[in-house]
Amino acid sequence: MMELLQLFITFFMIGLVSFGGGYAMIPLMQTEVVNRYQWLTLDQFTDVTAIAGMSPGPIAVNMAVSIGYMHKQLPGAVAATLGIIGPAFLCILVLAAFYKRMKNNRYWQGSMFGVRAAVTGFIVYSAIIFTKNNALFGANMWYTLSQLIIFGGSFIAIAYLKKHPVYVIAISGLVGIALYS
Amino acid sequence: MTKIKRLFSFWEKLEKYTLFQLFVSFLKISPSSFGGGYALIPIIEKEAVQQRKWLSEREIADVFALAQSAPGAIALNSAIFIGYRMKGKLGALAALSGIILPTFLIMIVLSLLFLQVHDHPKVEAAFTAIRTTILALIVYAALKMGKQAIVNYAAMIICIAAVLALYFFSSWLHPIFIIVLGAIAGIAVCSRHSDELQQTKQEEKQQTAAQDDYSDYMI
Q: Which residues cross the membrane (chain A) (predicted)?
C-alpha cells in the first residue's frame, strides 16, 4: 500500500510540471524512478521509453502506466496513471474559471516563457542521456555506422517525409532484426 | 432477436445522455493518438464541433489554447476541458476516462508482452534499432519545441542553462527546481523587457499559424 502511494505521489509531482510533452519528462522520471526509488533498472527504463513511444496516447502517461505495471502490476499501473493525470485534471478545473484573466497576466506569461525554454533544454538533455544510457553509438565502427544510418533515416522519415512514427518504428524494428540478430 | 433489439434500444437510450456521449466519443478518438497529442487536435475538433455540435469553432480554439497552458498532454487536457464545459466535473471525468482507457489497456498489454519476450535475441535486435529511432523522435521533439520556445536570446540562454544544470548538477539539484528556476527567470526577463515579450508573442502567433498543418505528432 505504501509503495502504491509512493508511485501515486511521485507521478503526481511529475504530472504537475509536465509541460512540453513526454520526452521532456525523461530526465525527471529517470531521477525518481531509477536513481531515487530504484523501481526499474536503467535498461528497463530505456526500454519503457521505447515502448511508450511506440504506443498510442501521450508518452508521459504511457510511461507511467508501464513503470507502474512493471513495479506493482495492475494496481501499480492504476496508481501511477492517476498520479500523472491528476494535476492536469485539477489544473483544468481551476484554469477553466480563471483562464481569461490569466491569459493576459504578465507573471503568467513570463513564467510560461521561461518554462517553455527550460523544457526545451529538458528534451535536449533527454536526447543526450538516451544516447548515453543506450551506448547507441560506440562499440565498433560497423555498429556505429549502422546506428547513424538508422538515426538519419528515421529522422528524415519523421521530420521531412512526415511519416507516421509508428510506421517508422515498425520498419526500424525489422531493420534491427535483419542487422543485429 | 428480441434480446438484440433490447440491447439496441438500451444503447440508444444510453446515447441520449451527454455523459455517455462524452465517454464514447473520446473512447473512439483515443487509439488514433499515436505519439501524443497534436495529431488528435483535428480529430477532436471534428468530433466536438461537427459531429456532436458541442462547441462552436471559436470555443474549440479557446479549449486548445487552455489545454496547452496547463501541465500535461494537450489531448487529455482538451478532453477534460470539453467534458467540464458540457457537464461539469462528472463530464470531465467521463471524457477523461474515455480517452485514457484504450491507451491504458494497450500499454498494459505491451508491457506484459515485453516482459515475456525481452530476452529473445530477435526482440533485442529489433529494440537496438528502435531505440535509435526513438532518439530521432526525441531530437525531432526538441526541434519542434525549440521553434516555439526559443524566440530570443534570453530563451536560448535559459534553455542552455537548463541543459548544463541537468548535465552537471543532476546528482543534487532536482529537475523540478530547474523548471521552477526557468519560470522565475522567465518572469525576470519579461518584467524587464515587456516590449520584447509583446514582440515574441506576435512571433509565436505567426509561428503557430504557420504550423497549422498539424503534422506535429509530438507532445
A: 7-26, 77-99, 111-130, 142-161
| Residue A66: closest C-alpha in chain B | B111
Q: Tell me which chain B residues have a C-beta less than 8 angstroms from the C-beta of A181.
A: 121-122, 124-125
Domain co-membership, A119 together with A154:
no
Tell me which residue in B80, B141, B161 faces A88 most closely, judged by beta carbons: B80
Which residue reads 544516447 in cell numbers?
A131
CA atoms of B157 and B160, how far apart (whole Å):
5
Please report residues of A whose CB lies closer than 8 A to that of B128.
176, 180
Closest by CA to A102, choosing from B109, B66, B124, is B66
Chain B: nearest CA to A174, how far in angstroms? 6
A54-63, A138-147, B44-53, range with the lowest pLDDT: A138-147
Cβ separation of B136 and A158 shorter than 8 Å?
Answer: yes
Alpha carbon distance A108, B146 (integer Å): 20
Q: Which of A117, A134, A151 is the last residue of a domain?
A: A134
With contact defined as beta carbons under 8 Å apart, do B99 and B79 qualify? yes
Considering its fold, how many domains does chain A have in total? 2
Specify whether A117 is located in the same domain as A154. Answer: no
**What pLDDT was estimated at residue A100?**
67
- Residue A177 belongs to what domain range? 137-181
Which ranges of chain B have pLDDT less than 70?
1, 15, 33-39, 193-219
The pLDDT value given to residue A68: 94
Angle between helices B153-169 and B121-149 (to 10 degrees): 140
- Give me the residues of A, 47-86, that contact B with CB < 8 A: 47-62, 65-66, 69-70, 74, 77, 81, 84-85
Give the residue extent of every domain in chain B. 1-117, 119-219
Of the given ranges (A36-45, A55-64, B171-180, B205-214), which has the lowest mean pLDDT? Answer: B205-214
pLDDT for residue B124: 86
